[in-house]
């Protein structure tokens, strides 16, 4: 469900710049089974026509998302690319499996 949601966001021309566990809302039924996921907090999102090569705007220079879930090149190159989803997903899955942040 999460990958489908990210794909939908990307297909619409957006890049969600702050994908992290706190921005993934889980809805379950009365038996505890997951019914759906929602991706929240589109504040630092990059819009259509800006994806893959967008340079950070001055207001975003203090990280457009949560640094621990961002690939290093997003910070060092000051570029936002749709490929950051892969990095963010791996960080989220690692945290859910180990219970620890991907890095300090």
Walk me through this protein's architecture.
With 104 residues, this protein is of the alpha+beta class. It has a single domain, classed as Orthogonal Bundle (Transferase(Phosphotransferase), domain 1). The chain has 3 helices and 4 strands. The strands form 2 sheets. Strands 1-2 form a two-stranded antiparallel ribbon. Strands 3-4 form a two-stranded antiparallel sheet. Strand 1 (24-28) and strand 2 form a beta hairpin.
Strand content: 5-15%
Total strands: 4
Radius of gyration: 14 Å
The backbone outline, from C-alpha atoms, is globular
Task: Enumerate how many helices there are, as a single number.
Answer: 3
GO biological process, one term: signal transduction
Domain Protein kinase: 1-104
GO molecular function, one term: protein kinase activity
Pfam families: Pkinase
Give me the secondary-structure topology:
Layout: H1 2-11, E1 24-28, E2 34-39, E3 54-55, H2 72-76, E4 79-80, H3 84-98
Antiparallel strand pairs: 1-2, 3-4
């Amino acid at each position: 469900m999460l990958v489908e949601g990210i794909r939908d966001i990307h297909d619409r021309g957006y890049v969600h710049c702050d994908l992290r566990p706190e921005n993934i809302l889980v809805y379950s039924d009365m038996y505890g089974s997951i019914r759906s996921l929602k991706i929240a907090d589109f504040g630092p999102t990059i819009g259509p026509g800006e994806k893959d090569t967008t340079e950070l705007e001055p207001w975003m220079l203090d990280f457009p998302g949560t640094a621990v879930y961002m690939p290093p090149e997003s910070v060092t190159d000051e570029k936002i690319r749709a490929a950051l989803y892969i990095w963010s997903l791996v960080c989220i899955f690692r945290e859910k499996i180990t219970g620890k942040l991907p890095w300090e």
